[in-house]
């Protein structure tokens, strides 16, 4: 995962899986404060089986978890 602070952009790349019909990239937000440690689901992104890359724009804060 690569993060560009200037444009609030995350680029996600992964190795292809043979016979995959599509990929689902899940975006979560991790909050770790003195009173709270929690993971919040934000969004699913569907990606075509022939694409192994996703750019996510306009993320305002740090602390994201991405699962493919």
Question: Would you kindly provide a written description of the structure presented here, covering whatever features stand out?
Answer:
It is a single chain. This protein is mostly beta strands. It has no helices and six strands. It has strands spanning 2-4, 9-13, 22-32, 37-48, 53-56, 64-67. It has a three-stranded antiparallel beta sheet, with no helix packed on it. It has a three-stranded antiparallel beta sheet with strand order 4-3-6, with no helix packed on it. A hairpin with a 4-residue loop joins strand 3 (22-32) and strand 4 (37-48). The mean pLDDT is 86.
What shape does the CA trace take?
elongated
Which residues form runs of ≥5 with pLDDT under 50?
Answer: none
Number of helices: 0
What characterizes the major β-sheet? 3 strands, antiparallel
Order of helices and strands: EEEEEE
Structure class: mainly beta
How many β-strand stretches? 6
Q: State Rg.
A: 13 Å
In whole angstroms, the N-to-C terminal distance is 12 Å
What proportion of the residues form beta strands (DSSP E)?
Answer: over 45%
What is the overall pLDDT average?
A: 86
Strand numbers in spatial order across the main sheet: 1-2-5
Query: Can you give the helix content as a percent range?
Result: under 10%
């Amino acid at each position: 995962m690569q993060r560009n602070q200037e444009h609030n952009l995350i680029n996600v790349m992964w190795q292809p899986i043979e016979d995959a019909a599509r990929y689902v990239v899940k975006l979560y937000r991790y909050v770790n404060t003195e009173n709270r440690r929690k993971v919040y689901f934000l969004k699913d992104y569907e990606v075509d089986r022939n694409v192994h890359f996703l750019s996510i724009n306009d993320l305002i804060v740090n602390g994201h978890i991405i699962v493919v």
